[in-house]
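User: Hi! Is it possible to get a structure for several chains at once, not just one? Here's what I have:
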Amino acid sequence: MSKFVKSTASKYKFGAHMSTAGGVSNSVVNAHNTGCNSFALFLKSPRKWVSPQYTPEEIEKFKNFVKEYKYDPMTDILPHGQYFINLANPDEEKALKSYDSFIDDLKRCESLGIGLYNLHPGSSLKGDHPTQLKQLATYLNKAIKETEFVTILLENMAGTGNLVGSNLEDLHAVIDLIDDKSRIGVCVDTCHTFAAGYDISTRETFQKFWDDFDKIVGLKYLKAMHLNDSKAPLGANRDLHEKLGEGYLTLKFFHMLATQFDFLQKIPIVLETPQDNDDGYGEEIKLLEWLENIPEDKKLVNDKEFMEKYDTLQKNGAKSRKEQMTKFEAKQKKPKRQAGTDIMSQMKKKAKK
Ligand SMILES: [Zn+2]
Ligand SMILES: [Zn+2]
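Assistant: Yes, the chains can be modeled jointly so their relative placement is included. Here is the combined structure:
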C-alpha cells in the first residue's frame, strides 16, 4: 500500500529524486508510493565510473511499472548525471573519460524509453572559459548524433567563474553552439539560482528572472526544474539545498511558484531537498499541492494556517540559516583578489607607460 497517493488534481508535475536500490525499476515503484507526478533517479552509481548494464528483464520491469503507474517516460522522468562528469575539462583525457560515462548514461535513458536527462555542465577549471564552453558543446553535439531521442538538460549552477552555468549567459553560449536544438534544454534549480545571486524571492524579482531567462536563453528551452530551498543567503555561491520553507526562499516563494507561474505546469518539478527517507518527499509534495490551492489573491499574512506553517518551517531552519549567514558575512569581509581589480591595476600600469 502506498502511503502517499499521487494527485490527479494537481496542475503541476511535482516529484522528487528517487532511490534505485535493488534495481532501476524500483525507482518507479518508489515514485508511485511517494505520490510523485514526476521523478528523478541516478542511472548508475553516482560515485563509480563504470557500472554493470541493465538486464533485459530489468528494462522490461521498468517499462511495465512506468505504464502501470502512468508516467510518461518522455516528459515525467528526469535522470541525473553523475556529478564528476565534466565535459568542459581542459584535460583531454579526463574529458574523454567523462564522455564515456555520459554517453553510457544517455544510452541507458534510451534503453528505458526516457526522454530527458539532466547534466551539471561542469567546470572550465584552469582553462579559458569560452574555449571550454565550445569543447562542451562539441561533446554534446557528438552525443546527440550518437543517440536517437533523449534531450539533454543543462542545469544552472550556484557558483561563479569557472563553473559552467552559474549565469544565464553561459547556458545561452552553449545552446547557441548545438546543431540540433530540439535535443537540448535547461533545468533551473531554485537553490542554485538564488545562491548564484539571482534574487527570485518576490513576485517581481521572480518574474524578472524569467524575463531575463527568456531574453538570454529562451523560455522554450526550460524543460524541468529542481525545487529546493537554500540554506545559504542570496549570492553566497554555496550549493546547499534546504527543505522547503526552512531556507532563505521561504514558504512564500513556493506558494508563489505553485500559483502564479502557469508555464511551469507542464514540466517536471523535482525535489532534491535533504530528507532522511522518501516519506519526507511525500510530505513535501503534499505541501506543494496544498499551497497550490491557496489562492494567490488571498492575503497570505491573514491566512492563519499558512502563517503557522510558514513560522514553523522558518523556525526549523533558523540555526542553519544563521550559520550560513555568519560564514557569508565573514567571506564578504575578507579582502578579495578579484579578477576585476586585477584588470583595473593592470590597466593603470599600462596607462602609466
Ligand atoms: Zn539540482
Ligand atoms: Zn545542488
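Confidence is low (pLDDT under 50) at residues 339-346. The chain is about 45% helix and 10% strand.

User: Great, thank you!
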